[in-house]
Amino acid sequence: MSSVGSGYDLYVSTYSPDGKLFQVDYANKAVENSGTLVAIRAKDGVVLGVEKLVPSKMLCSGSNRRVHHIDTHVGVAIAGFLADARQLITRARNEAKNYKSTYGQPIPIKVLSQRIASFNHMHTLYGSVRPFGCSIAITGIDQYGPQLFLVEPSGSCVGYFGASLGKGKQAAKNELEKIKFSEMTCREAIKEVSRIIYSVHDEVKDKDFELELGWISTETNNVHQIVPKELHDEAEAYAKQSLEDANM
Amino acid sequence: MSRSGTAGYDMSIIFSPQGKLYQIEYAFKAIKTGGLTSVGIRGKDCVVVATQKKIPDKLIDPKSVTSLYKLTDYIGCVQTGIVPDSKSQASRAIQECSSFHHKFGYQIPPNVLAKRMADIAQLSTQHASARPLGVAMILIGIDDELGPQLFKVDPAGVYTGYKATAAGEKEQESTNFLEKKFKSNPQLSKDETIQMAISTLQSVLGADLKSSDLEIGICTMDNRKFVIMTDEDIDSQLTKLAERD
């Protein structure tokens, strides 16, 4: 069976004899090589955390941001090629703005996620383009409550209670499955997300990393923001402590 | 295994020397990669689509995952195959229905919609720019003049009306099962149609199904609207089916 490329993987508009689209599979590999992203949908909001790998000590802290705002009530985090993700973020911001302009209300998270997914999907149809090499986690609060969606290079858009992407995806997933999402508050979720990221971080292969945290909850008045310094420091301390306790 | 027989004729939409379009055949294979099976069955005064619901990851919110789409109040469909392609096709179908209604002032009949979706699918079998979508669409509705209707539209641009049909991973097994059941040309009531759909899926999947493993959509002559059955309704049908056996 031609399960290894061999000519069917040159254009995304070509099916392999098994009915696979190899270019989409390869785009997913680009996502798998990025720093871990963990998101938790708690009962009063959603928390995003990213393991932002710092390749050089020369970089200013806070550069190459991976958590972004789309609208006041929507925030996203990205895994994969940052440059491709910038396109998606710009697109998402425009979609949110146009929706507000047309319908007079903030864009529902499901609608935004589906639109970005359709945009991704379009790039899997034609031979002249390539799929985006990034997945994004879209979070927000709308009239349906807190929402978390993952949009992938294939154009798939699925809602989650807890999600992970990137290098430590599987290990993070195992940790997430132990959590009772319906009972967790955002404040607790921030600590959990930090703990999971610290625990899946590979000290040997990747040296430095910065922890980026974003949240939106009833506490922030349903406005997406980067987690404030005190909460961030508290979460990091908790994460480091948990790591020490686990190693003992 | 190198396919020397195809030798380059299967890289894009061109004819092979034997007159085959290999990319279309591969698109059909892509339908099976979804791993799900769906069936559509037409009864005497109702028509039903049923599909598996598989959510392997318990972190996923089940409400966000579905293969059933309501195209208009009166027409629904189940899409089997590559998920993003199905969303795209459903979205296009909804636009076509809406545009028909706007142009002609009445709801699009199921056979007209099927023909339109088939014509759209045919474009990608002739123009190499966009690949064919790896989805089979089974659509159902009640036609004002013709009664319950069931159509399947496939990536080749072919649409056919059916008494019963299946799509997806276990398409062949389901079709064999349904052919045996329909040999006597039965006139199925609403309950019988729903139970036939459930038992087809149970038989080909080799497992007893719960309401959380099934999605069922139905149109009846009394209530012409496309209705997606609730878990409770599916449970009561499962109970009736078990009692019957």
TrEMBL record, chain A:
SUPFAM superfamilies, sorted: N-terminal nucleophile aminohydrolases (Ntn hydrolases)
A single GO cellular-component term on record: proteasome core complex, alpha-subunit complex
Keywords tagged on the record: Cytoplasm, Nucleus, Proteasome
Cellular compartments annotated: Cytoplasm; Nucleus
One Pfam family here: Proteasome_A_N
Record flagged with keyword Cytoplasm: yes
Domain Proteasome alpha-type subunits per the UniProt entry, residue ranges: 8-30
GO annotation terms (biological process): proteasomal protein catabolic process; ubiquitin-dependent protein catabolic process
Transport is among the record's keywords: no
InterPro entries reported in the protein's UniProt record: Ntn_hydrolases_N, Proteasome_alpha, Proteasome_alpha-type, Proteasome_asu_N, Proteasome_sua/b
Family of this protein: Belongs to the peptidase T1A family.
PANTHER family associated with the record: PROTEASOME SUBUNIT ALPHA/BETA
Known function: The proteasome is a multicatalytic proteinase complex which is characterized by its ability to cleave peptides with Arg, Phe, Tyr, Leu, and Glu adjacent to the leaving group at neutral or slightly basic pH. The proteasome has an ATP-dependent proteolytic activity.
Subunit structure: The 26S proteasome consists of a 20S proteasome core and two 19S regulatory subunits. The 20S proteasome core is composed of 28 subunits that are arranged in four stacked rings, resulting in a barrel-shaped structure. The two end rings are each formed by seven alpha subunits, and the two central rings are each formed by seven beta subunits. The catalytic chamber with the active sites is on the inside of the barrel.
Protein name: Proteasome subunit alpha type
Native organism: Dictyostelium firmibasis
Source species taxonomy: Eukaryota, Amoebozoa, Evosea, Eumycetozoa, Dictyostelia
UniProtKB/TrEMBL annotation, chain B:
KW Nucleus (keyword) present: yes
InterPro entries, per the entry: Ntn_hydrolases_N, Proteasome_alpha, Proteasome_alpha-type, Proteasome_asu_N, Proteasome_sua/b, Proteasome_subunit_alpha6
Predominant location category: cytoplasm
Gene Ontology process terms (BP): proteasomal protein catabolic process; ubiquitin-dependent protein catabolic process
Keyword annotations: Cytoplasm, Nucleus, Proteasome
One Gene Ontology CC term in the entry: cytoplasm
Cell compartment(s), UniProt: Cytoplasm; Nucleus
Residue ranges constituting the Proteasome alpha-type subunits domain according to the UniProt record: 9-30
Keyword flag Membrane: no
Entry's family note: Belongs to the peptidase T1A family.
Subunit structure and binding partners: The 26S proteasome consists of a 20S proteasome core and two 19S regulatory subunits. The 20S proteasome core is composed of 28 subunits that are arranged in four stacked rings, resulting in a barrel-shaped structure. The two end rings are each formed by seven alpha subunits, and the two central rings are each formed by seven beta subunits. The catalytic chamber with the active sites is on the inside of the barrel.
Functional note: The proteasome is a multicatalytic proteinase complex which is characterized by its ability to cleave peptides with Arg, Phe, Tyr, Leu, and Glu adjacent to the leaving group at neutral or slightly basic pH. The proteasome has an ATP-dependent proteolytic activity.
Protein name as annotated: Proteasome alpha-type subunits domain-containing protein
Species for this entry: Dictyostelium firmibasis
